[in-house]
């Protein structure tokens, strides 16, 4: 069991609960305060984006207002299209003695990385002095791609791509290959942006949907349980939280994958009276 702290910050006029785990209470309070500041900044940025996006330019040059009240389905559709537009299509190995290692970069169609996590340090024993096309580097890159849910595109092969000005043109420090998502990755995307999973709550525990990926149940004693779901490539993550009324929450059940909700709830029921 892990002690956690739950705080409420304001997103505009809307209260939003955040849960902080693994920090001492003073540090958790400081983190919550900082989250509140970031949230207010986000509100300002969103307002600015709305102002800029509130009108579209027609063919005749006139500006027409655009409706911004999106439904959850519309927001998910936008997010799905954003994922597709930023999805990696190229893998690049870059080996450099300047930082003493080799990294795998996952590049989108625009040729850049989208997230910091798209740069993966390859755990190989040494910097391959013979460049990026060594078996050690290629094997490590292939394993890293598999963990991220990608494989080589049909017929694609690693090819050296010496950077301009390289001191060793015959031993290029960069190699690239076209990549494609695996079936597991596409299934993860569908879970991430598609319908929420269904689960069967134990008799007498009437969970109500609070927001996407979160359901709550309040017992007659006043105790609140919160079931959360987070899509993940290697098996969706389910957690059951118990709130004690003082702002603290504790994980009392966990589960993974298709039957993760049942596992989390069963783990709790076997130790408690509900």
Account of the 3D structure:
The chain is of the alpha+beta class. It folds into 3 domains: 3-69, no CATH class; 85-190, no CATH class; 196-269, no CATH class. 28% of the residues lie in helices and 31% in strands. The chain has 5 helices and 15 strands. The protein has a 7-stranded antiparallel sheet with strand order 2-1-15-14-13-12-11. Strands 5, 6, 7, 8, 9 and 10 form a 6-stranded antiparallel sheet that branches. Strand 5 (90-96) and strand 6 (101-107) form a beta hairpin. The protein is elongated. It starts with a strand and ends in a 5-residue tail after the last helix. The relative contact order is 0.10.
Please specify the SSE layout and strand pairing.
Elements: E1 3-11, E2 14-21, H1 25-53, E3 55-57, E4 63-65, H2 72-86, E5 90-96, E6 101-107, E7 119-121, H3 135-147, E8 150-152, E9 159-160, E10 174-181, H4 183-193, E11 208-211, E12 214-218, E13 224-230, E14 237-243, E15 248-256, H5 260-269
Antiparallel strand pairs: 1-2, 1-15, 3-4, 5-6, 5-10, 6-7, 8-10, 9-10, 11-12, 12-13, 13-14, 14-15
